[in-house]
Amino acid sequence: MSWISLEKIKSLGEKFDYVKVIENDKGFHSVEVPKEKLIEFLKFIKTDPEYSFKMFIDWTVIDHGPKADPRFQGVLILFSPEHKERIIVKSWATEEKLPTLTGLWSGAKWAEREAWDMFGIRFEGHENLVRMFLWETYPYHPLRKDFPLRGIEDTELPSLNEKERMDQLEGTMNYSRMHTALPTLEDLEITQKARMPEKSSQVVLNWGPLHPGTHGTIWFLFDMEGEYVQKCDIIIGQLHRGVEKLAENMNVQQIIPYTDRMDYIASINENHSVCVAAEKLLGIHEKIPEKAKYIRTMMAELSRINSHLLWLGTYALDLGALTMFLYTFREREKIMDIFEGITGARFTINYFRVGGVYADLPYGALDAIEHFIRDLPQRINDYETLLTRNRIWLKRNVDVCVITEEDVYDYGLTGAVARASGVPYDLRKIDKYDAYGEVDFDIPVGEKGDSYDRYLVRMEEMRQSVRIVQQCIEKLRKMSKNDPFFFEPEDKKMKITIDGRGTKLFKGEVYAGADNPRGELGVYIYQPKDGIKPFRFRLRSGAFYNLQVFTKAIIGRPIADAITLLSTIDPVVGETDR
Amino acid sequence: MGIKKVGLNRNVAPQSWVEKIFFLDIAKGLKTTIKHLFRKVITVDFPFEVITPAPRFRGVHGLRNVDGTEKPDFDSWVKKLKIKPPEMGETRCIACKFCQAACPVPEIFVIKAKKLDVPEDHPHHGLKVLDQFDMDLGKCMFCGLCTQACPTACIIHTDVYDLSSYTRRGYILNKEQLSQIADDFIARRGKEKFDEHSEWPDTQKLWPEYDFARAKAWDNNPPYFGPNYADQK
Fold first, then answer.
1. Nearest C-alpha of chain B: how many angstroms from A385?
2. Would you say B181 and B62 are in contact if contact means Cβ atoms under 8 Å apart?
3. Which residues on chain B are in Cβ contact (under 8 Å) with A448?
4. Backbone angles phi, psi at A21, to 5 degrees
5. Residue A558 in contact with residue A281, Cβ under 8 Å?
């Protein structure tokens, strides 16, 4: 496990007398720093060669309930690329205020806006502290513990009940006419102005929220100088469903179907993140049955191929190569057929459980996967013949929108975007969750970090996924049909069920995640006492932080490159908005 | 640590002059497209051709009736919850509400049991029957947790997927409709999905092999199914 060792963190406590070291029995040690000294402390651990926690991972807030004093606590997760370690730095937000970290990591800009939006914490010194997901005139902060789960229903929406004449609607059919607040057009105008208070040109170009090139509902604001972008901001949140709030009110197996709806293109990988984190919190991640581990690894890699095929098809379609879309969707259909047979659903899969998978492979599953995998490398070569050295493709991609290595650390970029910039950051190698420690594969790493490198990295990732799937099939073939696929605890205190009823989480905190096609989906669970419902369930979305670098990489580029950049960053709005 | 370096000059050679002048890059691409021109059609002509969903497919729910294939502990569950012992053709539901407890959106279900109105000397005195079982499928995520929680294998997922309606009321199914859906499904494909214990049978196939529409989607070259594991027949 890639976490800072106890000796190293204790020497931090000796060096600074204000630092309080919090030991964790699962190994996730953290430090607590008073907020006045936070910037000074972070500057030290960022630059000191012995620590060099220079990669930003996540910056969020815990609400300890309306009775606690102080009530809010900031939680910062950092990664050290040199030592391959993580650390959690905590700080109490007295008077609902915290110092801003945007001077140290630019990635904190959106993280702080999200914390302000959800918890109402002011970050002193932030350049433009506006809401992230909700509109500017929304009066509440929904992730506070005293905000009800149903929301505050204060708007009348008669259209909820489609009533025909003489209808008497009763019971479940009779929807309440009251609804939670909805933004009006004026609200949206205020929001748009607040996001970009100063503009240099006459007209701000709006792109989206319902443009086919944005692959979802993202709303871009471009401040243009001729054809070149001077300033850019993004309004997201049209798909915000409050998964974190929902997750605080249910058991951990019930959260998994909600994560299907986040990154709906690679839902298996999202499920994987939750399972990995919850298993680490329960301390059972090494006791998961071998069969379940290999099935999960295999399915996750198939899902990665599926996601990358969709990315390749739509990316080429955006740049004008229609044929690719038809070719990749043909292969994708086969993967979805395999998923349908194994898991019961084509898209929103919900196959993984905390403790394994819910059913064994059906008869013939491995043959179908083998059949598909045999053809795939030839298909990928076909795609490469069409695109890789095509002159139009080269012109549209080479040296377009370069993301440097510094940006990766600064913005907390993960996934293929980070790897294309030359940072071999891959949780599959660092954490070695499930069977990734036992299979053999390479991490593709780009050279410059332009759009072309991101394209090549993803193509190579598909080939490596094929390798992993082949190795998993070989291993699974040797197993017995009677091997368990779900973990059964010997410990009386622990209860894990396939249907989720009564599944308990232990006291403690954990940050773990899986490497998804769109970056690292980290799950931070904070649990002050044993219980069914997680107290704080933070989803660190890779797509959210990857999308943030768009506002920097597009500056100085013509507007036509926005399509290329957005496609190569490849966010899914379900995951950015959660 | 295996790292593979990719890039324009690393694993991809830049275009040469010959390629640029004779448009070789585009000619190569066209060769691939022309190759695909002579392949058979792979699209399925819906709704004239329909792909049969896999046996595990999670479609619209159904409530199974008693048909003599219950689990051995069915009677003990009935006794425990003080339900009138169901006869052949009556619902298996014992109103235990385990499905509602497992559901991430518990508002979907409205489950009510009522006491039987019989005189004191009747053998069914003090026992209950299922009165109401409504499901609002407009709120359902089709995650399958309810079917795994059901102790009597009553609530199941069928292969029905066309659930559209003009109003929200159309998504609300009551217990008669749900029973009808389950009965139809068991009559059609009961053998594929269930054995006598209503669990996943060993020989359950990935998808039905008799389905020619699916073979078409697999480039007319569908996989041949064999055993997964070393000791499977």
1. 6
2. yes
3. 7
4. -90, 130
5. no
Contacts of B149 in chain A (CB under 8 A): 499-501
A95-140 pLDDT, tens digit each: 888 888 888 888 888 999 999 998 988 888 888 888 888 888 888 8
- Residue A175, number of CB atoms within 10 A of its CB: 17
Question: Is the predicted ipTM greater than 0.95, yes or no?
Answer: no
3-state secondary structure of A447: coil
d(CA B152, CA B74): 6
Does B229 sit within 8 Å of A481, measured CB to CB? yes
- As a whole number of angstroms, the distance between CA B61 and CA B146 comes to 10
Cα–chain center distance at A485: 27
Instruction: Write down the residue that tokens 């190293």 correspond to.
Output: A8
Give the tokens for residue A525: 């669970």
Of A118, A134, A111, A140, give the one whose Cα is nearest residue A195: A134
Of A152, A151, A482, the closest CA to residue A289 belongs to A482
- Contacting residues of A for B232, CB less than 8 Å apart: 363, 481
CA distance linking residue A457 with residue A477, whole number of Å: 30
A11-23 per-position pLDDT tens digit:
877 888 888 888 8
Q: Distance of alpha carbon A143 from its chain centroid, rounded? A: 18
Task: Judge whether A451 and A560 are in contact, CB under 8 Å.
Answer: no
Average pLDDT, chain A: 86
Domains along chain A?
6-124 (3.30.460.80), 243-577 (1.10.645.10)
b/e A506-519 (16+ beta carbons within 10 angstroms → b): bebbbbbbbbbbbb
Examine residue B47 and say whether the peptide bond preceding it is cis (omega within 30 degrees of 0). Answer: yes
Predicted model pTM = 0.90
Q: How far apart are CA A75 and CA A55, in angstroms?
A: 15
**A249 touches B: beta carbon within 8 Å:** no
Coil vs helix vs strand at B61: strand
Could you give all domains of chain B from N- to C-terminal order, each with its CATH number?
A: 61-193 (3.30.70.3270)
Whether the per-residue pLDDT at A285 is higher than 80: the answer is yes
User: A381 — contact with chain B (CB < 8 Å)?
Assistant: no
Chain A to chain B Cβ contacts (< 8 Å) = 219
* pLDDT for residue A449: 85
